[in-house]
Amino acid sequence: MLHIVACIKQVPDTKIIKMNPKTNTMDRRTAPAILNPYDAHAVEEAVRLKNKYGGIVSVVTMGPPPAVTAIKKCIEIGADEGYLITDRRFAGADTLATSYAVTKAIEKIAKTNSVDLIICGKMSIDGDTGQVGPGIARRLDIPPLTSVNKVEEINQEEGYAIVHRKLEDGYEVVRSTLPCLFSVEKTINEVPYSPLPNMIKAARYKPHIWSVDDLEEVDVKQLGLKGSPTIVSKVWAPQKPAGGTFLEGNPTSQVEQLLSVLLEKKELFETKEGV
Amino acid sequence: MDFQDYKGVWVFIEQKDGVVASVSLELLGAGRKLADKRGVELAGILIGENVKHLTKTVFEYGADTVYVYDQPIFKHYRTETYMKALLECTDKHKPEIILYGATSTGKDLASAVATDLPTGLTADTTELDVEEETGLLLASRPAFGGNIMATILCKKYRPQMATVRAKVMKALPPQSGRTGKVVKETISLKEEDIRTKVLEIVKETVKKVRIDEADIIVAGGKGLGSFQGFQLIHQLAETLGGAVGASRDVVEAGWIDHAHQVGQTGVTVTPKIYFAIGISGAIQHVVGMKNSGLIIAINKDKEAPIFQASHYGIVGDAFEIVPILIEQFKKALSIEKVSNTSEG
After folding, report:
1. What pTM does this model have?
2. Which end of chain A has less neighbouring CB within 10 Å, N or C?
3. Architecture label for domain B211-343
């Protein structure tokens, strides 16, 4: 019985987020919260491995109470259990403080059912760092395997996993002892529409909700803003470039003007022609 | 932690098959500026097997010192082994700043090292500066998915660390014969204690799209409406002999592969001509193309920020403009050819 933990995050949908033109910041109120798209692939991979080898999939997230919705989405994909750690003391965490808090949650989950494998998405679409996954692996002292785009084998009996890690010009086949942590690429799988029974299960599902006090041996100084070595000192709108010339007129005239600009660099096109 | 003990700027020198990654050379250029402003040494940290000869390159591109771990255990990049070398070296020599390329290897390594030290790590930096007096690293990057930059500081921990996007910083022109101090380090790691093994490296023969090497890029955005609409971009790229680029939402919509994505989470490009068609111009896209030689934007919305980042702008419907452009361009080029032939 494999026990796989997938780490997930609820994020604002940056694709449809509106900017506040006055402050130049994201207007989070206008953005629907979704399961981080990269994490959907992590959960899907965990579910596939469960179906192949037998076992259970737990998902864990840190976030405000509405993050329950993201956990339910994971139950739809096929996860069995969901854990939300939520507490004001987690707020303002950078990647280091986040990996600390999530590690504490995983340690607690592992107390009742030891964990064989942890799967994270490549990164979150709002933070864009990809640093939390490897951070969790270091804190648990298990090998982090990033850029995983295929899981070849999980052998629980002999305690190893074999995966493909994506490289710039191909991939490498790596064997690691279990337990270990994968950060997976989006290309690792496709997330299909969820089967109806899962959707019904998800609608009724109530995740485990823990506060800091429910976790064990927590050093509160390492949580949230206090536990974050990085701080945002200022946000600023980059100096706008002067901007260029608008080519006016009807489409034909606009294209004519553009063409004369392009043909000033005609050597580019000639060399291309010659190839 | 006594900050006085931490001195110098380090660059992690990423290498593969006996070649130093270009991002590492760029970081030596950026690191040189930081080190000079602070009045300290710039060092490279080079880890691998049979890599000693690469120190020459590292000096030529600006380093004063290179710390070298050259052992069979470092034949392939593995988080565990490289991390241990970096942690040991950092503990011994105490740099104030460590920079890594924001490549998959650089990010993997930096994330692990930052957790163990522990210290702060800023991801995907696009601007770097240092406070002369305090040595505080000012690492800036586009943030919150929008048109805004954030400057990230790490005030209470040393070393300060950042991963830096490729092709954003400039490498110095190499000075042939420039040399420095080589510090040979060894680490006592036993292969049997390492929990990961690289079993095989498979090079994929399929030709990979490398849009960062193209002279002309035609990039399309969500304004093209659909996968079918996006085919217009392919047509124009083909006509001009250019590569196809895309904004993030186009890639996320599945109209084209991620290898074509330009911007903060895609590729940084500097072609001679860049077309942005139906791309609104969020900063996360603009940081990936703003250093292009000639930027031309076509967009329906006159207020789209992309026009601010462009040399020439056309407010209009791409489906109207681009077909005319393709037709006129073909015509113009054939005239050019004829006149060239008659001259020749």
Report:
1. 0.83
2. C
3. 3-Layer(aba) Sandwich (3.40)
